[in-house]
Structure formats: C-alpha cells, structure tokens
Design a protein that fits this description.
This protein has 2 domains: 2-77, no CATH class; 91-211, no CATH class. The protein is of the alpha+beta class. It is 29% helix and 27% strand. A hairpin with a 2-residue loop joins strand 3 (113-116) and strand 4 (119-122). The strands form 3 sheets. A 4-stranded antiparallel beta sheet has the order 5-6-7-8, with helices on one face. A two-stranded parallel ribbon has the order 1-2.
Length: 212
C-alpha cells in the first residue's frame, strides 16, 4: 500500500487535488507560452504554468495526473474558491467595449489611475508601468508630439475592469510605426489582474503583471 501511495503518479495526483485549494491553482504544461497562456481560463477559472520548452518525455508521469486531479476537483466542486468567478469578456468583447470610451490622460495613467464609466479607479503606479512593459509600449512614457498615446478603460458587467493601452510613433511622412497595443482585465473588487489580450506589437512572452 505504501509503495503505491509513494508512486510518482499517485503523488502527482494528490498534489493536483490539493492544487484546487491554492491561491493560484495551475495546470502544468511544457512548451513556449503564447501571448494569452498565463490568462485565467474562463471555463475552469484556473491558471496555466509551463516548465519550459525542453520536453523530456516523462511529463505524463507527473503533469498528466496533476492536471487530471485538478480537472476532477473543478468538475466536482466548481471553480477554485480563491480565483475570480465574475464576468469575463472575450477578446472581441473587450475590444468593442474599449473602442469608444472616454480617454484617460497618459499622465493620469502613469500616476496609476484610469477613468472608467465616469469613475476614477486607482490601480497604482506599479501596475501601470508593468502594463507598459508587458506590452512593450516603451514609447508611452515619452511626452512628445511624435508619440500618440491612448488609454481607454471600461467596467464590464459591474465586476471586471478593462484597460486598453496603446502607443505609436508618428513619422515625418504622416504614417505611423512602432505601434503597440494591448488590453488587461482586472477583478474590479480586488484589482487583481486576471488576463491580457495582445492586439499589436511585440509583447513580453512572460507578463510580469500576471506572474509577480
């Protein structure tokens, strides 16, 4: 009985059951993460974690039982108790929601605030700068006529804060280059970031905002 319990697959399954209770429950994978890999999954309300690009071939011994156990817990008990359970706009919905909302001044955003649905919401300077860094919007902090900066924010169904940030450089001929744009979703109650959508540019593969 004891050897069975100490089997790597049995241990991994047990860890997967316990994962449901963690502050940030994660499914385990291998491979290079995509732009939205670290987003909270809208169905399971769990996150994902990757062990890197190099595959050794024995991941099924630990990863598969862990993921199966966490899936079982979600099926039986629902989304993990510590993660966000509120409304979750899709990428298309988030884009549409932030197309026409009132603008937030770039300086106000850098000060850690956004205007959304007629309210001023304080997200903090640290979060604002992580958003800029994660989306590669390095021109955003330049107060120059040659840089067009935009911030729009909206509240989705009372519980999700949607922030869209962009910057682009104006060329002498009137065209634009170095355009970067992205959207971040926050739990409005806790102001905890839950997801990001990359719209253009070269975003950081591992977003600090979602992983710190």
């Amino acid at each position: 009985m004891i050897p069975l319990l100490l089997n790597p697959m049995s241990l991994s399954f047990g860890f997967g059951l316990h994962e449901w209770f963690n502050e940030k429950p994660q499914f385990h994978y291998k491979g290079l993460p995509g732009d939205e890999f670290y987003n909270l999954d809208p169905d399971t309300r769990c996150y994902r974690e990757t062990g890197g690009c190099k595959v050794y071939g024995d991941e099924w011994i630990t990863y598969s039982p862990h993921n199966a156990a966490l899936s079982l817990m979600v099926s039986v008990f629902g989304p993990p108790k510590h993660t966000y359970h509120g409304p979750y706009p899709s990428k298309t919905e988030a884009i549409k929601l932030t197309e026409t909302n009132s603008l937030t001044s770039p300086d106000v955003f850098l000060d850690g605030k956004v205007q959304a649905n007629g309210k001023e919401i304080v997200i903090g300077q640290d979060k604002a700068r992580k958003i800029i860094g994660d989306f590669g919007i390095y021109l955003f902090e330049l107060d120059s006529n040659d840089v067009v900066r935009n911030v729009r924010a909206a509240i989705f169904r009372e519980h999700c804060l949607v922030i869209r940030v962009s910057s682009k450089e104006r060329m002498p001929a009137g065209s634009f280059e170095n355009e970067s744009e992205g959207i971040v979703l926050f739990d409005l109650d806790s102001l905890h970031p839950i997801a990001r959508y990359v719209l253009s540019g070269y975003a950081q593969r591992i977003p600090r905002l979602l992983n710190d």
